[in-house]
Amino acid sequence: MLKSFDIYNQNNILKIILALNLLLVGTGSLLYTNRLILKLEAREEQYVQLYVKAVEYLYSSSRPDADSGDITFVTSEILQANKTIPVIYVDQNNQILAKLNIDGLYKGIPPAEEKALLRKKMAEMSESHPPIPVVMNDGKQGHVYYSNSNVLRQIAYLPYALLAILTALGVLAYLSFSSSRRAEQNRVWVGLAKETAHQLGTPMSSLMAWVEYMRSDPDQYDGSITDEIEKDVQRLETITARFSSIGSVPTLKEENLNEVVRQFTDYLARRISTKVKMSLASQLPPDKMVKINKLLFEWVIENICKNAVDAMKGVGELRLNIVPLPQQGVAIDITDTGKGISKANMQKVFSPGFSTKKRGWGLGLTLAKRIVEEYHNGRLFVKSSEVGKGTTFRIILNAN
Question: Of 19, 128, 161, 258, which sees the most CB atoms within 10 A?
Answer without folding.
Answer: 258
